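anyone seen this seq b4? input:
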Amino acid sequence: MIKRKADTVLKVSEPAQLMDFLIAKMGGMARSSVKQLLGQRRVKVGNAIQTRHDFALKAGDVVTVSSGRGNSQLTHPKLKIVYEDDDLIVVNKQPGLLTVAATPGSSETTVMSILRAYVKRQNARAGIYVVHRLDRETSGLLVFARSEELQHYMRQYWRELVTNRTYIALAEGVLEPREGKITTWLTEDKRNAVVYSSPVDDGGDIAITNYKVLRCSDDGKYSLVELHLETGRTNQIRVHLASKGCPVVGDRKYGHGNESSPIDRLCLHAKVLEFIHPVTEKKVRFESPVPKEFNRVLQ
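predicted toks r here
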């Protein structure tokens, strides 16, 4: 055990779960006390805050336990931090929350405004920078950079850094064939805030979506579709599913909106985000559970 300033630094010599490791190394600390440390975000593995008691440690890891209260916690009904280190923050957002404000100076609560307030409670000079976005009504995973330099780097090399982006959609009807690839050229009409799709190259941006139907309702009215993006165009999934005659349930722009929707939301969810960490150069993977209401529709 090495003590530096107010922190306790522990070196991992063999694989173990974080909870068991801390109980063994922190002087017989009770399980409830360890859970409290984790809940207060006072434990780091490497340079990343870790709150999971079952996190798998490996030999060579360094665990740091802060003796202070720890970082401020983010408590918001529509946003949860799933990963945080000195360079990045990965969040899981609920539908109804914009990634960033639609217009400069807007007072609307967004993912950006929530995170900005959060990091400034830790450090008044801290900043937060958006790397990519999700539509207001799309739920799921987003990553933000803690520096402008890192934001520029991740945006420039996004396609090279990202190794897996998986979405889940509840679609109207059933796609045929049930597994395949959609390739079209998309043109964005910014004036009307809509994207048009063409099956041939008409000068738009090529967009490629791989899909697989996972489940269908007995009456064939709805299906749960897994989608992997090869490109990341504006509204790509929504436009592509609509082009196949199976729009996303609840899509007011490219589908039938709430006219035939059993759920009062756009049924699109960013489930998996996997990428090469731009600083550590190690692959990191995050997964968000499929919203329960999607599966309920199919039962």
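The chain has three domains: 2-66, 72-156, 165-270. The mean pLDDT is 89. kinda curious what u guys think
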